[in-house]
Amino acid sequence: MTNSLEDLAEADVILLTGTNTIENHPVIAQMMKTAVLSGKTRLIVADPRDISMARYATVRLRPRPGTDVAWLNGMANVILSEGLADERFIERRTEGFDAWRESVERYAPAVVERLTGIRPADLRKAARLYASADAAAIYYAMGITQHSTGTDNVKAVANLAMVTGNIGRPGTGVNPLRGQNNVQGACDMGALPDFYPGYQRVSDEAARAKFSKAWGATLPGTPGLTVTEMMDAAGGGAVTAMYVIGENPVMTEPDASHAAGALEKLEFLVVQDIFLTETGRLADVVLPGAASVEKEGTFTNTERKVQRSARALEAPGEARTDADIIFDVAARMGSPMPRLSASGLMDEIASLTPSYAGIKYSRLAHGGIRWPCPDTRHRGTRILHAREFARGRGKFHPVEFIEPAEMPDEEYPLVLTTGRMLYHFHTGSMSHRSAALEEYVPEGWAELNPRDARRLGISEGMPITVTSRRGSTRTHARLTPRSPQGVVFMSFHFGAEAVNRLTNPALDREGKIPEFKVCAVRVEPGASG
Amino acid sequence: MTGTSIRINGKRVSVYPEARVLGAARDLGIQIPTLCDHPLLSPSGYCGVCVVEDRASGTLLTACNTPAAAGMDIWTDSPRACEARRRTLELILSDHPESCVICEKGNACRLRDLASAVGLSLTSEKHVGRLYGINDANPFIHRDLSKCIGCQICVRACREIQGAEAVEFTDLGVRARPMTSADTELAGSACELCGLCVSMCPVGALLEKPGRHAGTEDERRAVICPYCGVGCTLELAVRDNRILRVSAGVEGSVNGPSLCAKGRYGLGYVGHPDRLTAPLVREGGELVEASWDAALSRVVDGLGRAVAGHGPDSVAVLASAKATNEENYLIGKFARSVIGTNNIDHCARL
After folding, report:
1. B316 forms bridges with which residues in the sheet?
2. Which residues in chain B are contacts of A345 at CB distance < 8 A?
3. Does A363 touch chain B (CB under 8 A)?
4. Which of A51, A275, A328, B253 would bridge with B233, disulfide CB 3.0–4.6 Å?
């Protein structure tokens, strides 16, 4: 997030898109709902599904899935043609405006309606509301990024914030909501193929020299493989051994049967987890890890806040923390690393990572610190880009609408879009083993629009088979206008459904994120598949 | 400071224009007993326990919702105020079930606390029971409206903090109670099972089902919620290496009093019997338990063989969006400096 949760409620307008906030980030939804109910904040909700947050919206847009660039450019088109742009901000803080302006000229409301199904009057209302606010914030999640055009979608979001000057002030910003408790921190710490901690590039000679010296080894300078590329490389034989820690790619990868097949080809697979996951069942060695509440450490939340978490319990049996295991493996491989405590490790991180340089355990006792925190007297950064962007001027990137990689056709006439639900989480390895949640929602379902269902001869609760070009799965139908016509929604929490057997592994070319939000399927009554 | 000046228990105090009598008294360090008042919620005046006497006007008034007005001469413990407070509590107790000895709320019950503070016992009034049964319809909340005192903290919390407006206080007279708009079960209503109302209920009308009858904790530990990226702080009540209950409200947390169903009710997995408690190695096609020494030898052998045979880039490492910063840092350091590959990623995109 460019901004912080503290200043969320200072927004006059919040544009929510690609986030089913009440179910995926319930406590942030709570902040938004109360801001709306207090009368301070008005909400624009842009989502194909009629998500619960829409109840709080002043303006509601329901674009066809996978058409985000079109309606976002359309919003910009209205803003420019109605003179609602922030000329001063554009002049002082940005570059590339003219070329971008030309590109959005092609997205007049009537054109956008043809591409997205959004009525011109609604698009104009949304654009006016967003652009006329003193402070307007955009919040988004995987509904924007999990597309083959995910990076373009994010650029279109950023363009909208820049053209209206909604960056760098309280209640504004471009705010992605992160889906795992430490996905921000894992990225910050360089658990990425192209970055060292603090987004220092592995291809940057100075960074490589710095880390080579600190870690006492000559580090490789070529960026590595992303998780989805690792699966391809495993299938193709270029990767022969994998060490998987706390992840379950057999369930989370698109076209999951392909991922499982690839992992089976490995010569050696070690999985370190708290449960025997679907991925662990394929392993040569499974190492028992400690749960997060069984270790001292820090987590970085969606607003960049580094927070301490106490060790509340002992790990069961012989289970050990990831750090202890890694120390052992490294030592046995002949390259021992100093066995530092969590706080000692943070000191090492701080010494190598400018954005974490001021983070020390002793400073985190009464609440967290948001990075960048360049020194131990710095109180952290509530709002990014207040005076300038990381690259100096913010660049308008022209982006053009491209259809999703796989569109419905005669054989697969419906769009499948996937996501989470309130009472379960990710692959369910945690939530299915929490008795109350599991009792409340023991199995998954597919949400269909009642009209589609009637046409297909499907009634409420009926067993159905959902089939894509890659696979087939059985579930039950839930008939609800939450799903627009032509769209089926399923969550990916249920092993029995394994919805990622259906999803399309088409990747965004820059972000390498799979297109989980759109693939073509057919739905048939009965559990025939 | 400009504004109004009033007297409370004979002491003069200046108050801001929007101040209430209750707040003005607290500023002076004078505690007035309350039941339906909550510092995070708008004042209501429903319960009448905070009654005080204004000798300037000769009236009794509820301190929580009465604005401090110029010239007031408030006495918080005058005989009249005390008698009125006692009568109010007697009325509330008169239809409250006499089940304190087995009520899970125990010593945390505000009603019981107040009753003993003013010297009332449950049997001092004729008992008139109410007809509501126990609702056990979902796995999160045990609801016994016979214990409801009508304070509407649940209704206000749902509206003012959670923003869900799932319950309202409806029906008439003695039937008045908190319920969903069509008196349906919470499942299928606007309720998000966040548990906020349960955590704020001053009596035993709303209780959490997970952790009921679990007893008292030895210690409380603040941890970051293992689920989404909001970064809520959970306070775990722990005893015998078990999590008894989860609560919110830790100072400096991003979530204040709020949690969601997963954070509040979703930590059962930690103590689940499926937890791996020993290393497993594949022997003859089966995963069987092994010593750490044997398992780590296999790991070192498997990874070492790949590096030696096909080079470091034949190894790929997946770190975890569930692991700590320190661990992710270590995993990256391990992949890059020990294995010698940049093939490291995690599920950020998935």
Report:
1. A242
2. 326, 329-330
3. no
4. B253
Interface test with B, best of A313, A314, A353, A363 (most B CBs within 10 A): A313
DSSP bridge pairs for B236: B221, B246
Give the tens place of pLDDT for each residue, B52-72: 999 999 999 999 999 999 999
Distances from the Cα of B223 to the Cα of A313, B24, B196, B208, B257, angstroms: 11, 36, 19, 20, 15
CA A62 – CA A46 distance, rounded (Å): 6
Last residue of a domain, one of A127, A154, A177: A177
Q: What HEC string does A292-319 produce? A: HHHCCEEEECCCCEEEEECCCCCCCCCC
Query: Per-residue pLDDT for B140 more than 90?
Result: yes
**Same domain flag for A303 and A443:** no
Residue-number span of the structural domain to which A195 is assigned: 183-370
Residue type, A249: P
The ipTM of this complex is: 0.95
Q: Is the dihedral of CA A155, A161, A165, A166 positive or negative?
A: negative
| A119 and A59 within one domain | yes
> Cα–Cα distance between B276 and A246 in angstroms, integer?
12
| Interface check A313 vs B, CB under 8 A | yes
* Number of domains within chain A: 3
Name which of A19, A183, A439 to mutate to probe chain B: the one with the most chain B Cβ atoms within 10 A of its Cβ. Answer: A183
Provide, as residue numbers in chain B, all residues whose Cβ is less than 8 Å from the Cβ of A288: 275-279
SS3 per residue for B10-46? CEEEEECCCCEHHHHHHHCCCCCCCCCCCCCCCCCCC
Q: Report residue A469 CA to chain centroid gap.
A: 25
Contact residues on chain A for B310, CB-CB shorter than 8 A = 240
Pick from A427-436, A487-496, B58-67 the range whose average pLDDT is largest.
B58-67
A32 neighbourhood in chain B, CB within 8 Å: 163
Asked if B69 and B27 count as a contact pair (C-beta separation under 8 A), the reply is no
